[in-house]
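Sequence in, structure out. Go.
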Amino acid sequence: MHIMRRSFLMLGLMLLSLPASAATLKEIAVIHLPGARGEHFDHLAMDYEDHYLLSARVGPGILYVIDVRTNKLVAAIHDLPGITAAIYVPEVRKIYTCDWGENKIGVVSLRQMKVIKKLSTPAKPNGGTYAMPFGKVYISDTLGKAVTVLDVHTDSVVKTLKFGSETGMVQYDPVGRKVYVNLRSVNKIAEIDPASDTVVAQYPVARCDFNHAMALDSVGRRAFLPCANNNLLTVFDLDRHCSIAHIPMPEGADDVAFDPGLKRIYVPCESGAILVVQEDDPNHFRKLEDFPVQKGVHTLAVDIETHRVYTPEQEENGRPVSRMLVYEALK
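Output:
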């Protein structure tokens, strides 16, 4: 009986939504970016020390550095073939880039605004996370079925963890002091202990098909996993190691972000929408809306200080463009 009640409750949570008129985002600025129009953008990152937005541009191999205080481009850093993501490390003021085009990790100095080193890595470096207390960056090598571990003080590879699955996004949990990586081919999450760089366990993610992206609510002990093949946003309990909610989303999800201040989850979907979900508490979630955007929108970032949302566009009604949109979150 308790299981049935819980199932009905989850179904009710999945279906709750605000009226269509209650928009969650408002466009406030457009930043036009150099480079060929129509080229694919990939993952974004925030640098809160310098107030920079870091944007990967896969095709031309460019990392854009944008000042979010002025909405101006600061630098366009080249020589990063097939860049899919950037991981910022404040202590050393460096960015570690995932360069799929040459299967290397680029080390970018923010002081010099240029690439200062490259490190070899298994196939398709595709995202990463920084575990600050351990001084390590963890890079997901998707097609290499691996996670590469870097020491940020020596800019060297200290370990490569192998898995029997393609690896999706990886995130560091500062509360539990663990690193989590999606095993997207088998619909599981692996837990890594950064103190020893050993795999502690692997947990199945129920009702999830192809969990590539990941965001964490570390305080609430939740992981948010867009399941791209069955179009569900799955909420995963990090302590009990199980799925607790499933929220329908549009097609084409490859990224997710969480705003811990507003308790909002954002999932960009290439079919032309951003799924917006409200976390009322760690056990209750409401779908607010599928906010309409241009088709092909692949990624976004949240500035947790201003609650602004940034998302790049590569087309407008089928016409190629190259720009970053800035949204204000509406409460």
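Check: Confidence is low (pLDDT under 50) at residues 1-21. The first helix runs from residue 2 to 15.
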